[in-house]
Amino acid sequence: MGRIETSADPIDEKAVIAAAEKALADISEVKKAVSEVIFGQESVVEQTLLAVLSGGHALLVGVPGLAKTKLVTTLGAVLGLSANRIQFTPDLMPSDILGSEVMDQDENNRRSFRFLPGPVFTQLLMADEINRASPRTQSALLQAMQEYHVTVAGAAHDLPRPFHVLATQNPLEQEGTYPLPEAQLDRFLLQVDVSYPEMAAERRILLETTGGADATPRAAITMERLAEIQALIRKMPVPESVVDAILELVRAARPGHGNAKVDESVSWGPGPRAGQAMMLCTRARALYDGRLAPSVDDVRALAEPILQHRMALTFSARAEGIGIRDVIADLVATKAG
């Protein structure tokens, strides 16, 4: 099977395979450590971890009480990352996130400004109920997510690396919220839908979280090891069949590209960043599943979390009760089948 190299330098395939086999054991240990604290929700844990392993950000959408916050704090501990949490509210200001300059005075009465970093200066940032903040505050986070630095008083300040934002949204309560603009939604590698747990998992939650002590997360890998795995994922060769499947799926999701159903129901579709996200996440999913190369099945599995927040339905489609997941499912059946 033909392969596509994704950098100007030739890929040492044997070295990549050896590094991938070592990474498989580390990722397996990460999965085990997370499962000791988070019960059930396998797809949610998988997709959130895929976003982090791919070096990106994730948007977790679900009603309150589904352990979204606990998942983020657990991942911080398991992956060896420093973590901060910001509760977004309508009165939150950009300086509350980024930090601000304060005036210092020394013993000679000379005054100077000193930068006090805000909570965004961490490696894993939980942005809780991100859509409750004003557009001005949301846009302050946008630069950090895309450029990995913030600008305060004209000076740029680099963020720690790696840097990941895991944001949460409540899909039910929309009063007093500010929907995220398309430009910011596109910065999230995945949208992870957090559903209610299965019966067996919920039974375990009831029994194990209402006793004397909760399970505490343990470190499975270091921050440096995570960075190595992230770099490895970018070096993994991708079969031409997978690249073709990604291109066909992403392009078919755009109106005006020959799909009558999409033309009728989709007002705007995913841009090239969706394909980039798919290229990274299919590799990460292969490693997560213990494989050394991605397949078309990975494209099918990741279509919904990667595309759903990068598309919008027409008014007529919404009026007819068509959902964005229905459109993506049809595309997967025809383009990645």
UniProtKB/TrEMBL annotation:
Keyword annotations: ATP-binding, Hydrolase, Nucleotide-binding
Coiled-coil residue spans: none
UniProt-recorded name of the protein: MoxR-like ATPase
UniProt xrefs under SUPFAM superfamilies: P-loop containing nucleoside triphosphate hydrolases (SSF52540)
Organism lineage string: Bacteria, Pseudomonadati, Pseudomonadota, Alphaproteobacteria, Hyphomicrobiales
Keyword Chloroplast included in the entry's annotation: no
Main EC class the enzyme belongs to: hydrolase
GO molecular function, one term: ATP binding
InterPro entries tied to this protein: ATPase_AAA-3, CbbQ/NirQ/NorQ/GpvN, ChlI/MoxR_AAA_lid, P-loop_NTPase
E.C. number(s) listed in UniProt: 3.6.3.-
UniProt record similarity statement: Belongs to the MoxR family.
Pfam families given in the database record: AAA_3, AAA_lid_2
ChlI/MoxR AAA lid domain location: 262-328
